[in-house]
Amino acid sequence: MTSPFASPNRPGVPPRLPTPPTGWPIGSYATYEEAQRAVDFLALEDFPVQDITVVGVDLMLVERVTGKLTWSRVLMTGAASGAWFGLFVGLLLTLFSPEPGVTVGPVLTGLITGVFFGLVFAAVGYASARGKRDFQSASQLVAGRYDVLCHPKSAEKGRDLLAKLAMRPANPGS
């Protein structure tokens, strides 16, 4: 029996436990897209990209508000998610039904029950918040910059290649 704590990290295999990144910085970029472009360029130049690590520095949690929550939106969303779950359960029931073929009864029962419970759970959840969070949002983890690190044996070559990339204009089509 092996333990994840006993085996050392193997080259080319991500570590099992969180570990700080290692390597020499060969580039720093304001966006992930720019860092990805740099690694893509290195791959096209037959650089050993397995020696590369992209590190997001100065992490931020960004929450973008996508809309206002209203009773109608909450209930419609609850009914829709309940309907999908009920439809899924109804179809599962037909699979294990002793009668051959798809019967409408279990599917319809699952659908109606799912809509009902979706409405109830959505209403209870929204009412219990008492107006403390009347908006929808999407969260994203974003870095202030993205550093490209490289194994020391290849760092000088990587830095030289990225300097050539920096001299070229950024073209989204390339």
Low-confidence stretches: 1-7
Q: Roughly how many Å apart are the termini?
A: 48 Å
Please identify the oligomeric state.
Answer: single chain
Kindly estimate the percentage of residues that lie in beta strands according to DSSP: 15-25%
What integer is the average pLDDT? Answer: 88
Count of alpha and pi helical runs: 4
Main beta-sheet annotation: 3 strands, antiparallel
Shape: elongated
In total, the number of domains comes to 2
Helical amount: 40-55%
Number of strands: 3
Sheet with most strands: strand arrangement: 1-3-2
Query: Roughly how many Å is the radius of gyration?
Result: 26 Å
Structural class: alpha+beta
Instruction: Give the SSE string.
Output: EHEHHEH
Biased composition (Pro residues): 11-22
Domain General stress protein 17M-like: 26-99
InterPro entries: GSP17M-like_dom
Transmembrane segments: 74-96, 108-129
Quick rundown:
This is General stress protein 17M-like domain-containing protein. The protein is α+β, with helices and mostly antiparallel strands and 174 residues long.
Give a verbal description of the structure.
The chain has helices at residues 32-44, 71-95, 104-129, 152-167, and strands at residues 24-29, 52-68, 135-150. It is an alpha+beta fold and 174 residues long. The protein has two domains: 24-61 and 144-164, no CATH class; 68-134, no CATH class. Helix 2 packs antiparallel against helix 3. Residues 11-22 have a biased composition (Pro residues).
